[in-house]
Structures are given as C-alpha cells and as structure tokens.
Amino acid sequence: MIKAVVEIRLKPGVLDAQGKAIEGVLDQYDVEGIEQVRVGKLVELRFATDKDIEAQVETLCEKLLVNHEMEDYHYTIEECGDE
C-alpha cells in the first residue's frame, strides 16, 4: 500500500484565526516564549496501487484539497503497511 501525506498551510500574511485563538490562551498553560502559532491541515491518502499516484495527488490538491488563494501545500509519498 502507498500513502501520500499532504501538508496544507496558510500562506504567509493570511490571518490564521485558529492560531490567534491558541495564542490567546497560552498564558493559561504556563507556556512562554511562543511568538506565533499557525494551524494547518494534514491529509493522508492511501492507495491500493502505485499507478500514477503523484499525478492523482497533484490533481486532488489542485482541484479539491487546497484553496490556492490562501494556502500552500507540500506532499510526500511513501510505502506503508496495513496500519
């Protein structure tokens, strides 16, 4: 089985409301020294075949998973067991 892991993050300069909310409560957890929090998404795709995986992942990122106005993405493809 093949696994593609897609990391999706907001582009620099795009307001991260979730990150700001986390920043707002850090002092309640005795956490110091954090200047900024950014929240992203992680999508795992598992394929039964290794045929055209990179092209399929690119298509999914371009047409479905990523908002290109606000987000950037990166992915890796790796073999995995039957986890």
Q: Could you characterize what this model shows?
A:
- The chain is an alpha+beta fold.
- The chain has a single domain (2-79), classed as Phosphoribosylformylglycinamidine synthase subunit PurS (Mth169, Chain: A).
- Helix content is 27%, strand content 30%.
- It is built from 2 helices and 3 strands; from the N terminus they run βαβαβ.
- It has helices at 17-25, 53-65; strands at 2-10, 41-47, 71-79.
- The longest helix is centred in the C-terminal third of the chain and has 13 residues, at 53-65.
- The chain is elongated and about 50 Å long.
- The termini are close together.
- The model has no long low-confidence stretch (mean pLDDT 95).
Structure at a glance:
With 83 residues, the protein is of the alpha+beta class.
| Cα-based radius of gyration, to the nearest Å | 16 Å
Q: What is the share of helical residues? A: 25-40%
Which sequence of SSEs, written as H and E, runs from N to C? EHEHE
**CATH C-level category:** Alpha Beta
The major β-sheet equals: 3 strands, antiparallel
Catalytic activity: N(2)-formyl-N(1)-(5-phospho-beta-D-ribosyl)glycinamide + L-glutamine + ATP + H2O = 2-formamido-N(1)-(5-O-phospho-beta-D-ribosyl)acetamidine + L-glutamate + ADP + phosphate + H(+)
Protein name: Phosphoribosylformylglycinamidine synthase subunit PurS
Family: Belongs to the PurS family.
Keywords: ATP-binding, Cytoplasm, Ligase, Nucleotide-binding, Purine biosynthesis
